[in-house]
Amino acid sequence: MPLVVQKFGGTSVANIERISRVAQRVAKTYDQGNDVIVILSAMSGVTDGLIELAHKAAEEPDKRELDALLATGEQTTAALLAIMLKSMGYQAQSLLGHQAEVVTDSDYGNARILEIGAKRLKHLIDRKNIVVVAGFQGYDIKGNITTLGRGGSDTSAVAIAAAVNADVCEIFTDVDGVYTADPNVCPKARKLKTITYDEMLNMASLGAKVLQIRSVGFAKKYNIPVHVRSSFNEEEGTMVVNEDSGMEQLLVSGVTHDKKQARVTLIKVPDQPGIAANIFSPISEAGILVDMIIQNTRKGGKTDMTFTVPKGDFKRTMEITKKVALQIGAEEVLGDTDIAMVSVVGVGMKNHSGVASVMFNTLARENINILMIGTSEIRISCVIEEKYTELAVRVLHTAFGLDAEE
Amino acid sequence: MPLVVQKFGGTSVANIERISRVAQRVAKTYDQGNDVIVILSAMSGVTDGLIELAHKAAEEPDKRELDALLATGEQTTAALLAIMLKSMGYQAQSLLGHQAEVVTDSDYGNARILEIGAKRLKHLIDRKNIVVVAGFQGYDIKGNITTLGRGGSDTSAVAIAAAVNADVCEIFTDVDGVYTADPNVCPKARKLKTITYDEMLNMASLGAKVLQIRSVGFAKKYNIPVHVRSSFNEEEGTMVVNEDSGMEQLLVSGVTHDKKQARVTLIKVPDQPGIAANIFSPISEAGILVDMIIQNTRKGGKTDMTFTVPKGDFKRTMEITKKVALQIGAEEVLGDTDIAMVSVVGVGMKNHSGVASVMFNTLARENINILMIGTSEIRISCVIEEKYTELAVRVLHTAFGLDAEE
What we know:
- Chain A has helices at 16-31, 46-57, 63-87, 119-126, 152-163, 197-204, 213-222, 275-285, 314-328, 354-365, 389-399; strands spanning 3-8, 35-40, 92-95, 102-104, 113-116, 130-134, 137-139, 145-147, 168-173, 194-196, 226-230, 238-241, 254-258, 261-270, 293-297, 302-310, 332-336, 339-345, 370-376, 379-385.
- Chain A is α/β, with parallel strands linked by helices.
- Chain A has a domain at 3-174: Acetylglutamate kinase-like (Carbamate kinase).
């Protein structure tokens, strides 16, 4: 009998009416002859509300205690869904993180899953129960409650799917799949039937926020097919799968954009060993996430160093960087928040050198100046002026043959 | 070093400001050189809100799942208090029911504590932590979350105090102790310095609602001194202790009243074996709690049977009883909701036969008719017409020498 893991996010369980719709959907899947494990997030807004409450209690709430507090959100929705399923006549049972044996490290607020025992989970499934697991939470070996960080329920779902060897992990969300570009920006964007784990890894971090990035890594490692689909309709969404499954082989699978980054440049940095560490250690110690880093070579033992950080951290980053610049003898620090990053992503480009030139030429034709370039094996990203974002996405989408047919 | 268990109820932790006051109080106790374990209830209203939510999810919510849902209330307050204490510079840690090893049976919603491991609790106390335990909750041997029923945090507190061999269990509440009568009814009522477990057992069930009745049984069994005191001031409250502690030996310790009962009488019931079972089995199966039962002897093999039930269950009880009356051939069923029960309680009356006659004479002098009489070893209760309740309490209070000095 097929074993399906279904994960529903915060907007899908935002109130009793929506939880009731989830119950219908879960029941239908079960009635179709599947074993079903459900992973739930907290009602949308609840986690933020609890964080706010904790910050009223203390300026910097203790992390262990904050996790114990936050875990109540998923405990609530899991219990409520189990209550509904039982009242509909189904055998159902909720399990909290520790009851589902989701063992994590002790990095409160951002814990990593070490293993999932799932003994009880399997036992319940063998006895035809629908099991409802509170997502986002686990426990460390000492029995402390931990949480997995923002969007952690996706990771819970994929990890549990891996532990029980599920046939598919369905992620229900408020979009109906992964698109070739943001449809709000690019009207010709179309839904992908399939996408590879690697493409998702490169898409997710760039702004096509349908899946927590860590969950994709998990899915790839254990080769769990992930089905991203809408909780509001019955349509097929997008399957995230391994590359060698028979799938459409596009050169480029999608164009993504990200307006949430700011750019910082150090001018004329002495080009010597250890200098990068001098710059980025204090930034990382301040908890600021650096995304792209570019180092240009200059003449005369000096180099320019440019990097991007979230816009919200821009001011702090500038302060830190200016201090560092003095220490290391850099000439100047420049900053810019009016930028955006556009990227093209696709496993097809692995063995194809032409993608970069198509991208650069396409942008050039529109007189869009490229401020920074970064690449990974299956992604090319350009930082441009923010005002050109939408135009850039649309022309790249057309250039790589992604436009939906009229 | 003295080990103090402090329990704070829902009104004491109703919001962040009040939790902050609790934190101050706990810190003060710790600073005075005590080891401190804190037991918390959920914020007032939260448990009821969750029950309401569950009833929106299903008409009859599954009991296991309801307990998992309700347990979030105490988890929230425990984490918030620990967050505050830590931010104030104290070593503090919250523990949930299963983390504090509160093992119960599987009677969801009304579970009984079987044992408390308390290994981790003791470990933390040995290392000078203030431990904040979520009250009201435990877990069964299969690892399911259970709750202890209304007011269960009192029982949590006393049971944990027993498990760690605490010197005292302080119950903080919105009254400042146990009074000889309800001060709202009897202006001359005064606060008792001490009261015995047995007296509390007889008081609590009769309406002086300061402690969950089960917690008193626990305290008695393990001989835990319980200090009932106000969370709003620093005054000494009332110590609930064993009889043989040197204490004021009053004939009667208090006068209580209860207006929440209704009376049902079956007239001319055939007086034969098994008849009481015929009457009370269907009532108990309907989940209705019968309090006092009186059976009068009549002539001719017929008897009258009178009993009291909560007013809220009166209508249902009448329906059930009328059906039963037909089956067993009773003549008539009478019902009355305009009644009240007044009781005098005191260990002193154990070896003193005069209490009953003083009570009856006192009521007679005011022309208060006694409708039913019931007694326990240390209590005499009379059911009277409701309108005389306040008068009865005051004259009995005076008659037994309980009035505060002017």
